[in-house]
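Morning F.,

Quick status update on the modeling queue. The single chain you submitted on Monday has been processed. Sequence for confirmation:
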Amino acid sequence: MAVLHLSSTSAGTRSLLLGSAAGCRGHQVRSFGFPAQAPPDGHFGFGVAGDLLPAVGDRGPHLQLTAANDLTTGFSGGPVLDEVTGLVIGMLTEITAPDEYDRGQGIAYVTPTQVLREILPELAEQEVCPYRGLESFTEDQARWFEGRQDAVRQVVSNLAGQRRMTLLLGPSGSGKSSLIRAGVLRALAAGELPGSDRWLPIVARPRQDLSAEIERAGLPGAITHGIGAAATRRLAAEPTHERILLIIDQFEELFTQNANGYQHNRTAVLDQIVAAVDSLAKLSVILVMRDDFYPQLAALAPRLLEKAMPGLLNMPGVLNRQDLHDIIVLPAGDVGLHFQPGLPEQIITDVLATNPEAATTRQAPVTALPLLELTLSQLWPRRQDGYLTHEAYRRIGAVSGSLTTWCDSALNELAPVQRPIAQRILTSLVHPADPGRHIPAVRAQVPLHELRDLAAGPDDAPDGDIDTVIAALTRHRIITTQTQRNPQRPDAPPGEPVAELIHDALIRDWGALREWISQDHRFQEWLNRTRAQRARWAARTDPGDLLGGTALAEGLEWSRRRHLPGDITAFLTASKQRQQSVIRHSRRLNLILVGLLVLALLAAAGAIWQWRTTITQRQAAQSRQLAGQSERLFGTSPELASLLAVQAYRSSPTPESIASLRTAAALPLHRRLAGHTSDVFSVAFSPDGRTLATAGRDPIVRLWDVSTGKTDATLMGHTDEVWSVAFSPDGRTLATGSKDKTARLWDATLPHPSEAIKKICRSVNRDLTPEERAAYLPDQSVDPVCPTK
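Structure tokens below.
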């Protein structure tokens, strides 16, 4: 066998893919050859695949063909194409010459592809999967990026409008990165805009330091001289390029960095981007960001948003059936892959079923793309003879269960003791949600050495188990690891390796991970806060940035329950040592202060005792003086004498005051007016002195006959405490003021209650209400006119 390597192929041709000769029995096959009787351009020959014959002696395995009358001399070396699978299953090697009885006529033999691959390992079957799972399409996979032509045209049109900045917003999982790298960049490289094939694309992510990432991506000097100046120098060094297209993917990472002490650098790089857009540099900028971070952009970068508003684009929110069909079928057709009849339609139906509104709109949310791509990428390794099958689709759990099946298959490979390690690894790669700042949970990049610390747990899991779990999660593409390198300095040592989740869709759609994130939320929140404080302490070495009090107690509690990264452990140790030092200093200071306080208290106690003695003596002297005055007035003014006796006792209970009080208590009672049910606040005598008005906490105003001490009338109308009563100069009107915010004027010349009752009973033949009885018969007496009342 001779093998010919072609350096290029003619335009419009494509290579046939190699399949397997196993399982093709009964399939129609064809080849192409140049027999003597054929036209100069050759023609097709046909046959039917038979059995795969094993190797015998020095003869290798062969595939037998029947009904191969067309395959004559001149077809040797021709490819044998399985018309069912569309794959080449071998190379036509020989035909059988019929014997004297014409047996063997129409029999041909094929060297199967497995033998060809043994001879030439370069022909080994390759996993050329056109689907990306949860990974983004890049320039290398642009040929398989389908179904988004309208969105690509929108971005390209934005660039054609001479807009220096484009802000592309869309939900997580909507394919923003793929749209730019596999769609827009492919269109620009194909000359979609005049001269765009000479644009130089530079793609960066914020990660931990956006300025450094921009330099690393291809704009050295951006930190020191600015992005615009760096772009100008790069174009001057490479005159084959006319313009630089700076793409900052996953721009939302910039707004999750303040937890890591990135506030100052973030402000600086935002100002640099605005300055670059305003500069004269031949530069265009595309910012790609999740739309749920728009409030953070508006709050933290208003100038940048103002510059970006004219070029703001939103990702189309839905995919129609034609979009879904192209995404599913066209990449497969490009690599010679086929679907069993009805499978694409079934997948489209299942994708639409993920959206409750799809029954009426017949459109799927764009966020269904990750699940769709993951489903297709899981079908790929289960293909049979170049076909994606209904059975394989059922085994992976269809669209709705594909992500869970994929993730769970990785966990099922782990031993039971390794499952908690995987849980700690995965939750450590999620930046927790911050409802206060309206930031949802997103994936986070974590240095690999720190991830190993967090995965160990409180019992220090063996490093071998941790590495096994990381390897399993990486092999299944649940997480990815990468080492940061500087493309401008390939000889420089590599940066620190980091790990991250393959896609935010895991956080949204993997139920087990959502549950773990919820369980680990408090720890991750504390860890992020502590990282920020530790970064401030490391930058300023200010002891005030160390933890103390309840914050330190919380940190020490977490250190007992979880294995922490080395820098966080060192931070806790420094905080604990400072607190112990502060406690020792405080104890010494407290001893000094206690001694001073004791001396001060002793001095104060002496002064207070002396002051109290003086006051007591003064009050006793005043009490004896008042008691003496009270004794002299008992004969002439018993009321005043009684008041003086009470005041003497209140001043100091001396023997003299007690004696005066007893004398006053023995005096006969002059008069007591009883009727109010609570405190009396105000009293007033009428000008003629015959009537007394009283009012107090109960809302009833009473008029008393001074000569008899009995109630003349009760005035009801106020609803709250009555604070004041006063007679008019002529004694005919009484004024009252109440807490119910009213002042009332009353007729103080009311007839005697008995006369009022008689008048009522005579004029109205009815029973009195309880209120009327209380008002007019306060002593519940029987009236002779109305003897039953």
